[in-house]
Amino acid sequence: MTQPTTPQRPLKVLAAMSGGVDSAVAAARAAEAGHDVTGVHLALSANPQSFRTGARGCCTIEDSRDARRAADVIGIPFYVWDLAERFREDVVEDFIAEYEAGRTPNPCLRCNEKIKFAALLDKALALGFDAVCTGHYATVVLNEDGSRELHRASDMAKDQSYVLGVLDERQLAHAMFPLGDTLTTKDEIRAEAERRGLAVAKKPDSHDICFIADGDTQGFLADRLGKAEGDIVDESGARIGSHEGAFGFTIGQRKGLRIGHPAPDGKPRYVLDISPVNNTVTVGPVEALDVTALGAIKPRWCGTAPAGPGTYTAQLRAHGGETEVTAELIDGELQVRFAEPVRGVAPGQAIVLYDGTRVVGSATIATTERAAVDA
Questions:
Q1: What distance in Å separates the CA atoms of residue 182 and residue 95, rounded to the nearest whole number?
Q2: CA 249 to CA 218: how far, in whole Å?
Q3: Top-confidence residue, 371 or 131
Q4: How far is residue 118 CA from its own chain's centroid?
Q5: In degrees, to the nearest 5, what angle opens at C-alpha 302 toward C-alphas 300 and 136?
Q6: Is residue 133 flagged as an active site residue?
Q7: pLDDT tens digits for 5-30?
Q8: In what order do the strands lie in the sheet with 239-243?
Q9: How far, in Å, CA of 228 to CA of 235, rounded?
Q10: What is the average pLDDT across 167-172?
C-alpha cells in the first residue's frame, strides 16, 4: 500500500520561491505543517530586468521582491541565490544548441533537472536541509519499503508531473510538493493566498519561456544563431519556398510557413522535417505527421529501471494527453511503439512514461518512425 509522503518529524526545508502564488502557498503550507522552512529565490539572469514582460517568465527583480514579501508574511527567513551562470550553461545554451541541431527542447524540464533538483538540491543538502519544496502540482508517494514514487497530482487539470519526470529516486527522497495531493482549483489556491495575506494572490501566472522576454522564440534564436536563408521543399524535394533559418520551425507547425502557392490538393501543409545540415525544411500533408514508433535516449527513471518490455501510457508534451504505448529499454535506448499513430512528435521533446498515475521515467526523443501515407 502507498500513501503520500507525510514525514513524522519536522524537516529542515528549503522552499524555492519564484515570486508566484503557487510557490508562496507551498512554502506557507510547509511552514504550517511544522517544518523549519527557509525561502530562497533563484536569480537566473545576469540581467533580471530583461526576463519578463507582463505575465511572462519568473526571473525579474520584481519577482524576487514578491517572493521576499511573501516570506515575510509567512514568517520565514529568505535569501536570493545566484544561479545565473549555471542556468545559462545548462538551460539557455542547451536550448539554443538543440534548436540549432534541428530538435525541439523543453527548457522547463531541463531547468527542473539541472537547476531546481540538481544545483539547488545539492547546495541545500550540503547546507543541512532535508528537502526542497516547490509549488509544482505532483505527488511523492512513500512505499512501505521506504522507497518513493512520483505520481500525478490529484487534479489532472493542473498536473505537472511531465516536467518532473527527470527526477530520480534520490531526488524524490528530498522533494516536497505541498500542492500536489489536494483537490483545489487555481482559484482556491489564490483564495488561500489571500486568506494568508500573501500579496501574490492575484498575480498572473507566468507562461512561455522565462528567458525569452517578449515570447518571440524565432527572433531570440535568430539573434544568437544568425539568419541563414534556406529552402522549403515538399515531400518530393521540389522547392516551394524559402526561410531565414531552419531553427525557426518545429515539427507539426502549420502557420508562418510563408509558402507562395498552395498544395495541389488545396489542403494545408505542415512541417514534417527539419534538416540543419542543408538548412532545409520539408512540408507536407497532415497525414504524413503520423508517428507509429520512436527511439528515445538519455532515459531517467523515477525509481528502478523497468526490465523487459512493458505496456504504459505516455505523455509527449507538457499539456498533452496520454496515449497507450509498449516500451522497452534496448542497449540504453528506449524503444517505444504507439497503439495508435500520434502527430506532432519532434526529436528533442521528452516522452514520459506512466503506469497508472505513477511516473515511470522519461527520455529524450531522438528518432521517429512515420506511418505509411497512401499516395
A1: 33
A2: 8
A3: 131
A4: 15
A5: 105
A6: no
A7: 555 579 999 999 999 999 999 999 99
A8: 239-243, 230-233, 280-284, 270-275
A9: 22
A10: 92
Q: For strands 358-370 and 350-355, give the pairing.
A: antiparallel
Q: Active-site residue among 58, 59, 108, 111?
A: 111
Mean of pLDDT values over 291-318: 93
Count helices and strands in the chain by DSSP H and E runs:
9, 18
State the cell numbers at 151.
505520481
Distance CA(372)–CA(375), nearest Å, equals 9
Cβ neighbours of residue 246 closer than 8 Å, sequence gap 6 or more: 102, 228, 230, 274, 275, 276, 279, 280, 281
Grid cell at residue 355: 503506469
Q: What stretches of 190-290 adopt beta strand conformation (E)?
A: 230-233, 239-243, 270-275, 280-284
108 pLDDT more than 60: yes
> What band does 59 get if pLDDT is binned at 50, 70 and 90?
low
Beta bridge partner(s), residue 362: 300, 352
Point out the catalytic residue in the list 59, 108, 133, 210.
Answer: 210
Cell of 224: 544568437
Residue 108 a catalytic site member: no
